[in-house]
Amino acid sequence: MINTLKKLGPGLLFAGAAIGVSHLVQSTRAGADFGFTLIWVLILSNIIKYPFFLFGPKYAMATGETLLHGYKKMNTSVLVIYFILSIVTMFTIQTAVTIVTAGLAIELFGISSNITTWAIIIIILCLFILIIGRYKFLDNMMKFVIILLTISTIFAVFFAGFESTNSFEMKQVFPTTELGIAFLAAFMGWMPAPLDVSIWQSIWTLEKTKKEKFFNYKNAIFDFNIGYITTIILGLSFLCLGAFVMYGSGEVFSNNGSEFAKQLINLYTESIGEGVFLIIAIAAFTTMFSTTITCLDASPRAMKISSELLGFKWFENYNLWIIILSVGTLLIFIFFISEMGLLVKVATILSFITAPFYAFINYKLINSKHTPKQYRPSKFINILSVIGLIFLTCFSLWYISIL
What we know:
- 80% of the residues lie in helices and 0% in strands.
- It has 16 helices and no strands.
- α2 (10-18) crosses α12.
């Protein structure tokens, strides 16, 4: 068991990054608003995106380089597009995960009800941990966090299902209202995570090989699959939890960060009992804190590498990018907190409509001359990739046409 845990790392970091807004927020909201009728969205999103996330660790272990190096080899313009998209999205994504973490901190600690104050505390704490501990700390912390969250969530779903007296419609539906379609795009965009997280995965995989000499290609794929399966199980669990406790109750999730956090914790305590409030609150907060710190680590790593490859010498520094991201996130909290709902919506929809771009370049790179033949995908994975690419492209074009 201990040896197996040692082999895990980047895959759990992937899970830590994914099991944040997409799971605690979007999956739970899907269950609360639609019952079980959007399970198809969750399962389909995970299946069609699987190959494109897999190509991250696959390319890294095959070449000893990140996906960003591969983009540069394909065409510098691909890397420039990534750089621009990251500048546009990284601040809103970081703010989105931080606001949920801050809301949970209010519920757990109760020292202050000011969400901006908690955001500042959380960002500063993450900064300190990352500058001092770097990858090794993240690697060790995530193993504890994911195990804790998985156990507590499965227990919550079991008790909620046992206590629920609701009757559910299992027929799968396609939302037709404007709000329903917007939610569908956001749900698919961040389920299990935005596709650019595949780049983070390739970076973390190489970091793992530096720390653990035994971490080979087989370990990397095993590690990724464990992390990916975990995100699917927890995504379904959060959807079930929202359906069992809130669907048909007349209660809707608040757009206010602290109020949403309170409702989220109540999902657990109402199904298991008030006696477990502290355990559940800690599990939920730890999960979102891990997502916050993971995103705060990954974006600066990616931007540092991109800057090096593009020759932006002034920006070839991890610490500089982490400070830029932290300050930018806090400025959004201070000056645009009233527009948070719109910012999160923009971030999630951008993740959805840019998915075909990342899917295509990852597919093209892994099948190109830059990847050794023995590491290229199997015929089945390539077929699944093409299906996924067609679906993501058509769905994105359709969504843009009706905006």
